[in-house]
Design brief:
With 420 residues, the protein is of the alpha/beta class. The chain folds into four domains: 100 residues, NAD(P)-binding Rossmann-like Domain (Rossmann fold, 3-Layer(aba) Sandwich); 31 residues; 117 residues, Tetrapyrrole methylase, N-terminal domain (Cobalt-precorrin-4 Transmethylase, domain 1, 3-Layer(aba) Sandwich); 124 residues, Tetrapyrrole methylase, C-terminal domain (Methyltransferase, Cobalt-precorrin-4 Transmethylase, Domain 2, 2-Layer Sandwich), CATH 3.30.950.10. 29% of the residues lie in helices and 20% in strands. Helix 7 crosses helix 8. The chain starts with 23 loop residues before the first strand and ends with a helix.
């Protein structure tokens, strides 16, 4: 009996992961579809050649540093010589067909962007979480594949899908590690994707009170949460104790996350923790966070820079007043600064700092914005001036955490409104 013809647009896909490191890949076409394919191929560290008379600006930007070779002409037979993989992504079906035919004859797998049935390979919807790669084929429906991929990646990110298998095969002892995570200004939606991944994979989370607290509430019961809060002028865990704790737990084989508010290297003592881990031979990773110095003013509608108004800003720790023997801030230089001054940890010292800025040249009527509880439901913005700052803070009952901003940019909030 004759065999039943097979519809080339259907069939079972055999999923594989191509290891294209330093292998030649040819992409014919220079538009948006080609750009998306090239981005993934460059990430896989393939030797990518793009054949197209024109390319997008983003593709052209990959040519200068040598990530991509660009042949600025139309496709010619023989362009696939030596290739391991090919992509036909032009807007001309005849050119795409010719590329696919050459690839078929040379036994090179080819993804044809305009005709799924004519492709020898189907590109899955791909998501990445560190070295974990999720690829989904949607049975012919790309949107279905994207939806499932996004759901899996979201689950891995928020911890509802737990990646607990990052342990050596054979039941060996897993080496511990420390990840210093900047949690952003408080809203859990403002932590980075990598930061959220690290928290979701942790065995132990050592957290500050300014870190996104709702992330801690969502952790499984077997994850230990250690309170390392440092309350202003109140209870706190000594930095030396925190450093020892991180090292001790990591050397015991646990994945430790040090979760801070803001960014760990912006008045967060993150470098001290990194040095302690490095000295003990503990692997340590730094995940930068959205710093409150910029994010909190922005959420209140205050930009720290603005074209034609200020091209500079300085972030200052205000935990020590001007004149304190341990203060490293040059308040005289800041008084002469024309740009924006952002003060963190400066509620109790606000009056002294304002007086120092005025003494060294800043106008008394310079606008000031004080933002409390930035990024949270209780965020509040108070506008005043340098000369009235101390009285305003007292009258408004301002308490930490608060960020205050000095400069002409503060006046922009009155005209443009605020973000919250």
């Amino acid at each position: 009996m004759p065999e039943t013809p097979v519809d080339p647009s259907t069939g079972v896909v055999y999923p594989v992961g191509l290891r294209l490191l330093d292998r030649r890949v040819v992409v014919v076409g220079g538009g948006q579809v080609a750009h998306r394919r090239v981005a993934g191929l460059v990430e896989a560290r393939a030797r990518v050649t793009v054949v197209s008379p024109e390319v997008t600006p983003a593709l052209e930007a990959l040519v200068a540093p040598g990530s991509v070779t660009w042949l600025a002409r139309r496709y010619r037979p023989g362009d696939l010589d030596g290739a391991w993989y090919a992509v036909a992504a032009t807007d001309d079906p005849e050119v795409n067909a010719a590329v696919a035919e050459e690839a078929e004859a040379a036994r090179i797998f080819c993804a044809r962007a305009d005709d799924r049935a004519a492709s020898s390979v189907w590109t899955p919807a791909v998501g990445r979480q560190g070295d974990l790669v999720v690829g989904v084929h949607g049975g012919g429906d790309p949107q279905r594949a994207v939806g499932v991929r996004d759901a899996v990646v979201a689950g891995l990110t928020d911890g509802s899908i737990r990646d607990r298998a990052a342990r050596p095969a054979g039941g060996g002892v897993r080496p511990g590690s420390v990840v210093l995570v900047g949690g952003g200004p408080g809203d859990p939606g403002l932590i980075t994707v990598r930061g959220q991944q690290a928290v979701a994979q942790a065995d132990v989370v050592v957290a500050d009170h300014l870190a996104p607290q709702s992330l801690l509430a969502s952790l499984p019961a077997d994850v230990e949460v250690i309170d390392a809060s440092k309350l202003p002028r109140g209870r706190s865990m000594a930095q030396e104790v925190i450093n020892a704790l991180l090292v001790e737990r990591a050397l015991a084989g646990q994945r430790v996350v040090r979760l801070k508010g803001g960014d760990p290297f912006v008045f967060g003592r993150g470098m001290e923790e990194l040095e302690a881990c490095a000295a003990a031979g503990v692997p340590v990773e730094v995940v930068p966070g959205v710093t409150s110095a910029i994010a909190v003013p922005a959420l209140a509608g205050v930009p720290v820079t603005h074209r034609g108004m200020t091209h500079e800003f300085v972030v200052v720790s205000g935990h020590l007043p001007p004149g304190h023997p341990q203060s490293l801030v040059d308040w005289s230089a800041l008084g002469r600064l024309r740009g924006t001054v952002v003060v963190l940890m400066g509620v109790e010292t606000a009056g002294a700092i304002a007086a120092a800025l005025v003494e060294h040249g800043r106008a008394p009527d310079t606008p000031v914005a004080v933002v409390t509880d930035g990024s949270t439901a209780t965020q509040r913005l108070v506008r005043t001036t340098l000369v009235d700052l101390a009285r305003t803070i007292a009258d408004e009952g301002v308490r930490p955490p608060a960020v205050w901003v000095v400069g002409d940019v503060v006046g922009l909030t009155a005209a443009a409104g605020t973000a919250r």
